[in-house]
Design a protein that fits this description.
Two copies of one chain form a homodimer. Chain A is of the alpha/beta class. In chain A, 42% of the residues lie in helices and 12% in strands. Chain A is built from 17 helices and eleven strands. Chain A has helices spanning 4-11, 14-36, 48-54, 67-76, 96-108, 119-135, 150-165, 170-173, 191-199, 221-232, 255-265, 302-305, 322-325, 359-369, 371-393, 423-437, 464-477, and strands at residues 143-147, 181-186, 207-210, 236-243, 268-272, 297-301, 313-317, 398-400, 408-413, 443-447, 450-456. Chains A and B meet through helix 1, helix 2, helix 3, helix 4 and helix 5 of A and helix 1, helix 2, helix 3, helix 4 and helix 5 of B.
Amino acid sequence: MQTFRDRAAAAYDAERFRRQGHQLVDQLADYLASATRGALPVMPPEPPAENLARFPAAFPEEPAGELHPFLERVLAASHHLHHPRYVGHQVSAPLPLAALCDFVSALLNNGMAVYEMGPAATAMELNVLRWMGGQLGLPEGAGGVLTSGGSVGNLTALLAARQARAGYDAWNGGASAGPPLTVLVPETAHYCIARATKLMGWGAAGITPVAVDAHFRLRPEALEEALAAATRAGRRPIAVVACAGSTATGAFDPLEAVADFCERHGLWFHVDGAHGASAALSPRYRHQLKGLERADSVVWDAHKMMMVPALITAVLFRDSARSFEAFAQEASYLFHGQDTRRWSDLGLRTLECTKEMMGLKLYACLSLLGTRFFADHVTASFDLARRFAERLRTSGDFEVAVPPDCNIVCFRHTPAGVPASELDALQGRLRERLISRGDFYLVQTTLPKGVYLRTTLINPLTSDADLEALMDALRGLR
Amino acid sequence: MQTFRDRAAAAYDAERFRRQGHQLVDQLADYLASATRGALPVMPPEPPAENLARFPAAFPEEPAGELHPFLERVLAASHHLHHPRYVGHQVSAPLPLAALCDFVSALLNNGMAVYEMGPAATAMELNVLRWMGGQLGLPEGAGGVLTSGGSVGNLTALLAARQARAGYDAWNGGASAGPPLTVLVPETAHYCIARATKLMGWGAAGITPVAVDAHFRLRPEALEEALAAATRAGRRPIAVVACAGSTATGAFDPLEAVADFCERHGLWFHVDGAHGASAALSPRYRHQLKGLERADSVVWDAHKMMMVPALITAVLFRDSARSFEAFAQEASYLFHGQDTRRWSDLGLRTLECTKEMMGLKLYACLSLLGTRFFADHVTASFDLARRFAERLRTSGDFEVAVPPDCNIVCFRHTPAGVPASELDALQGRLRERLISRGDFYLVQTTLPKGVYLRTTLINPLTSDADLEALMDALRGLR
């Protein structure tokens, strides 16, 4: 009988890995070829219960089956983001090169809470952050961490804001050590901002909404009003969160005006640039971020507009030291010595302990593909969105919610003869039919004027022709 | 001149990916062969500044260089967890099969905040959670989410505890809607528990420490005392957190006694089983988890004892519905319809929005390698730790901090002639020398009796002979 050591030696055997790896590369290359030429449905239409039965909670006691057929089933039942007609959520169609880097990260598993657990990974993370800070125009001395996703990233920034501006030691003293806090947030912000403040124990009033204009951009004039309302409600406002861009429509708030307001009132200025901070890379569109360079903190997801797989979120602070203040802990098994701000131990600055070597994929892609490729992707996708919006606007049977600030376009089909009261239901129905047919994937959102179809043109392979085909498909579905 | 579309087509070209992929598989297989036979230093000894210079924050504008030589530099400057003499932190030496699955996940990038963004991934996640709940003896109806790491996992569980037991709506009403809260936590808990409570605005008093015994296990008799102390301090205790096992020494708290106490006082019972919940898989050691089946919530990291790469943390609730209560949000672009508890939209239950297809690697490894392999790994590594501790104890020149409950062994070298006052400094010095020489990697921790060397026997390739060699190496270093 085989001992566990024998079986472990086989499971870790390099030659077995080599064989399985080569087979997998061929399987994934074939898959990528099909997906990029649109030869499979964008999203398989199976309802949840069916997939649940297909991948049951039952595992054999002894080895069984092979990787290849198992993965064929996984591939078939997954969403295919490389399909040029994937125009849904803000998730990248990953560069194959970046996926290769994540493969390396998975095998190395360098955890990075302390420098020793990921020497190269720590260096790449710190320097990729430095480059990102530079792209945003933040001063020397800016810095922060990479973390697992925009929600955790925004929470990290708000924790630093709390520590810096509450006027009391909220970390050690708790919420009862001073007045309840609030942040001014445009109505259009991502739900994770409200979630972060509720998590910190500020309740629903932890968010003070700031009105937006017809373009869904924060109205600077509304800030004074929001500040007064917060104060009247017995809250201490400590920060303004601005969006670049907002999730539903991709609107870029007027950052310069928000920066002025924050300066005037001594408020922390945080920019949720999860999607849109990448605009800084584009000479044509970076003007939309004017004022960002004055932010105290910024969140930027590379897994949105930088073509790398999730998760890799940069939390950047204008003053790198702030990133140590959000957290403080003792753990002698991890952090030795007296220095609680050691720059090389990233675990001191993040909610996470062990994390992935997330800097590797971005560092490698920037090194090997060059920065212009990323700049051009931003420019091309924003350009494409403007052309698509113009085509919709002049079509006669489509309506654009708002001219796009970036690569998110919300629109609806308004065919002749459909009464206004039925337009909302029509959009939902069209989407359902279209995605279950598998030739496109797009989403929907509810704006003040009603339900709109929502597209994010994030896949570099999506062309004008694909978007024309989308309009035709919608027309044909009625 | 090449347009961006041409360059994008090249970057996403399946045949280019195939070539790079095959080359990478060979590179990684060669690397794995070296690492598993210990043919390279466990951790490269370069100080942080040196690596920072080696991976500078400067990127070319145009494409430059090749993946292979770039990755050679990354591999050389990384920590090699597959080396049999890696006996450091609680991070797995990943199964090559699991790394292949993460590669698939990276290419597919199925985000999973909603079912549509990851149909197969959602099904695998829900069913792998179901299987895990079953292994822990939780009732039918248990469930939860996979999330990015134990820190986020423990926070998620404590948010649910707050919502269930605060006695007021802390989510919407905030901390000021009721008395300040606290949780009873053994002194030995991971720092992320205190961090979670400080994050929620409970301050330093959000943790009420519970004394541990000489074995570093929570003393059940101390719970009443802690409860009284919390109440005297004007705090409302809502939960007890128990460890299985603790980070520094791997001690398993007496869960049955804690369950009784929680039941008696109506407290939420949370178990941080990040490392040790895997003991449930081992017929020989699962008795150490007796009482866990009565927990309200459990955290279990598969990236620790289940040989898969970080991150994959299960947050399991005895009542699956609790996992919706920790969070509540509106986001019409993401969650359509009225049902805020739709079982198939995982984003409703987690701090995260987009996350990785983290269930895939565990689902695949359990399916293809069988469950006994994982059970045997737990048994073998716990056995190995007991033999190692016995060898140290009887050696005459080593001292074990405490007989190990799991696969974490803390010890120190006590050679004849070294006065007790110099033993702490000696351990730190020995560790420094040993890891800079590159033949072992281990860590250190400070216990009440002083500084100890700390090993986690988590790599299935580590043998008794390696641990004997470790003792000899330490002896030779003086």
